[in-house]
Amino acid sequence: MHNYLSGIQQIGIGVKNAQEAMNVYKSIFGLDVLIFDDVAQAKLMSQYTGNKIHERRAILTMNLQGGGGFEIWQFLDRTPIATNEVNLGDLGIYSPKIKSLDIKKSYNRLSNVSGIQVSAITKNGNSSQFWVKDQYGNNFNIVFSSEWFQNGKHDTGGVCGAVIGVSDMERSLHFYKEILGVNEILYDNESTEADGNLYRKVGLFKKATGKGAFNKLLGSVEIELIQILNKTPKKIYENKYWGDCGFIHLCLDVLDMKSLKLHSDKNNYNFTVDSNNTFEMDSASGRFCYIEDPDGTLIELVETHKVPIFKKIGWFLDLRKRDFEKPLPNWMIKMLALSKVK
Questions:
Q1: Cα(298)–Cα(42) distance, rounded to whole angstroms?
Q2: Which of 55, 99, 132, 229 could lock onto 157 through a cystine, CB 3.0 to 4.6 A?
Q3: Contact (Cβ atoms closer than 8 angstroms) between residue 168 and residue 105
Q4: pLDDT digits 0-9 by tens, 267-278
């Protein structure tokens, strides 16, 4: 099995007000480190935005205890379509998976946060979990993790996975296992849920390898694929633009984009977007591409070229000048914390 991926870099969330959402997610989940805040035209994404180029603001924040971040995305020249009610099994990204150091502690804290809804704690396989719905209507799956980059003040970390609705489990398993390399099966079962519907759920896992500049921070990858078996699901982003409210993409950190592209092409999954060369995002840069899963769910792929270590003094790291599989030293990753969300 190939190893082109380092981990989940972020999950994209379309919102009406990026500044407000940034502070909400800082408060709820501890994403308090600012990686970039960029205003520009989304020129390469026009096929997903009505064949028009739109102005946007994109903010990437992270929780340096471990896991991926949130890319908070706002149209600046149109009013985005609001989040509709999303049901389990609908096609697309239903929820990110958010790391918790202590499920009961996270549950008790979040149950006392006004404006959000918190479900009861349940079992998923051998692990405990619960769900949060934020004030924008987005769902988040809070799951226990024993894998952390560092200890800190938060009981939750960043993104370690996603729950994705699919229409054909076998076809989707081929994509996520063979194309993306998330290939270990944790569970595969059918169950009738409280809503009365029958679902097949398959948990996929890719263990952190230690390869890649940020793998020790991003960690392992968990993808839960869900297929509703007794009814026809709707597509979450039907008649909506990428960038409208909700989860717009799952972004994976890529070690070797050239090899991944060749592998994908060979298996008849072509990149739909490819920046080809370095693309600037505020003071960060990289090559970014998009690929669609069999149901059209957007997976962003980013090969990071430059990252700000301490932006105030102009300290940036050019990753193209080093072995792309070599991890950064812990002290250098921790320096990212000098750029705080304000």
A1: 15
A2: 99
A3: no
A4: 999 999 998 876
β-pairing, 92-100 vs 139-144, is parallel
Q: Distances from the Cα of 97 to the Cαs of 11, 29, 255, in angstroms? A: 10, 12, 22
CA angle, 322 as apex, 319 and 327 as ends, to 5°?
80
Q: Average per-residue pLDDT in the chain?
A: 91
Q: Which of 146, 163, 63 is nearest to 100 (CA)?
A: 146
CATH fourth-level superfamily of 5-338: 2,3-Dihydroxybiphenyl 1,2-Dioxygenase, domain 1 (3.10.180.10)
> Can you read off the two tokens belonging to residue 84?
């509709």
> Is residue 236 a contact partner of residue 93, using CB atoms and an 8 Å limit?
yes
**How many other C-beta atoms are found inside a 10 Å radius of the C-beta of residue 291?**
22
CA 225 to chain centre: 15
DSSP states along 254-268: ES-HHHHHHHHHHTT
Entry pTM: 0.94
- State pLDDT tens for residues 49-59: 999 999 999 99
